[in-house]
Amino acid sequence: MTSTEIPFLEACRGQVPATTPIWIMRQAGRILQPYRELRQHHGSISTLFNTPELATEITLMPIEMHGVDAAILFTDLVTPLAALGCEYTYAPGPVFSSPTRTAADIAALRPVVPEEDLGFVLETVRMVRRALPPSIPLIGYAGAPFTLATWIVQGGSSKDFPAFRGMIHKEPALAHQLLDKLSDLVADFLQAQIKAGAQAVQLFDTSVGLLSPSQFGEFALPYLQRICARIAPLNTPIIYFPLAANHNFPHFKQVGADVLGLDWRIGIKQAQTQFDNRMPFQGNLDPCVLYGSEESIINEAHRILQQAKGHPHIFNLGHGVFPDTPYENVKLLVDTVHQFAGK
User: Nearest CA to 265 among 293, 295, 285?
Assistant: First the structure.
């Protein structure tokens, strides 16, 4: 299967000038009743992530019920970290029993062989790929190194992640050691997903907005570049999504990704001024728009679509969908984008 057979992949490579597909970033399934029933029946969300049959069913739900144009793998940002030895539970978000904060902690992180240690994720990839029609691509997924580091050093969720940000000031060499290991983990994990059948991959960087431009250049950019360079020989589009990090925009063209995900904090026209090439953008509807009226949803979607005209663009939310988002509003959005693309 070549990229020219799938409009989504063509858009990723900048080979089509207009918006063609839409897909909802992560967590689209959780607004659907079948997902809620599975969640209630199985109790632990870990069971959903770690059981290929269930993860496959959830990955396919937005395709079957929303009619979106690409599937994104149902897994979690922290999924590969358990293989390192960073054990966690959900309460309700991930909580790590032993944060990684010392040289001894980092030295104790185990080497990860994705085919052995994360085989359940790769089996999900294979099962989804077999279930999808050829025209619907599957997007693999992983957290970016800086974001993963903030979680395992902090030990859980935080607004500001002071533990790892403190480390980069107090013990920068130690921070680099950790980022080095996480970069290899992410690169190996994404390569394995591609070999199992993913046709594009996304690096999700939810914490990177906490870095200043100089810090981004030191503690994020080199590791992102390494991952992209490792994946490049596989000829698979790479999407980089940095959340709330527009102050670091000048660095993004150096990452090596094929597509840049935009949140709602920056307009597409404004983003275009930062690039002297035709790098495709993904985004960037504010998820809260989906709480609005039908008219406001259509108007906001059209505003973004008009801004993106003439530039390769993958319509998307600017972040994950909220769990109480009305299903009918998501379906309206999908239909609106499809109708606009067909004009």
Answer: 285
Q: Other C-beta atoms within 10 Å of 85: how many?
A: 14
- Residues in contact with 325: Cβ distance below 8 Å, sequence separation at least 6, in sequence order: 31, 287, 290, 291
Domain limits, the chain: 3-341
Query: pLDDT tens digits for 231-253?
Result: 999 999 999 999 999 999 999 99
Q: Is there a contact between 93 and 118 (Cβ–Cβ < 8 Å)?
A: no
- Strand duo 281-285 + 313-317: pairing: parallel
CA dihedral (195, 196, 201, 204) positive or negative:
negative
Closest CA to 252 of 304, 305, 211: 211
pTM above 0.85, yes or no: yes
Between CA 141 and CA 49 the distance in angstroms is 13
| Domain covering 3-341: architecture | Alpha-Beta Barrel (3.20)
Tens digits of per-residue pLDDT, 138-173? 999 999 999 999 999 999 999 999 999 999 999 999
| CB atoms near residue 203 (< 10 Å) | 25
